[in-house]
Amino acid sequence: MSDTIPTEPNDATQVSSPQPDAGSKLEAQLAAAKQEAAANYDRYTRSVADLENFRKRSLREKEELRLYAVSGLMEDVVPILDNLGLGLAAAKQQTDVKSIVDGVSLTLDQFKTTLGRHGLKEVNPTGQKFDPNFHECISHQPSANIAEENVIQVVRLGYTLNGRLLRPASVIVSSGSSK
Fold first, then answer.
1. How much is the pTM?
2. For 94-144, where are the alpha helices, taking DSSP H only?
């Protein structure tokens, strides 16, 4: 016997038998590919639905945050409203103006303290150099006592919230001594 492998088939059954076997492999591969495609499409549709749900939930949470972001501040302000109501009721019965002024002053201090705890700070630049980032110049006046470009008078206080300017202080600035 020789060690060579025949290059031609000996009978016709050997030639036709590999074809059905290859066809069944192709059908199995096609079925597997269709199954994989269906699974991928299912994952895709679920991902699209999840993304849409996430978008809707994010919008809803953002709206809730916007609506209720100041609830902590409001809880702290309600007692001040109570004190103002009590002060108004007392002012209607009171003839002593000094006690009314003292009550309103205490309530104002309570209000400023409460807002300060929530990050609000006054901008009161009296005597300081004019800073256009925090002050709004509404007028210039000559002054022999206050240096040029320094604040003479604060007409309206400014406010910052956690370091961010809410409203600049309206000020009158010195133009130096009049000559």
1. 0.62
2. 97-117
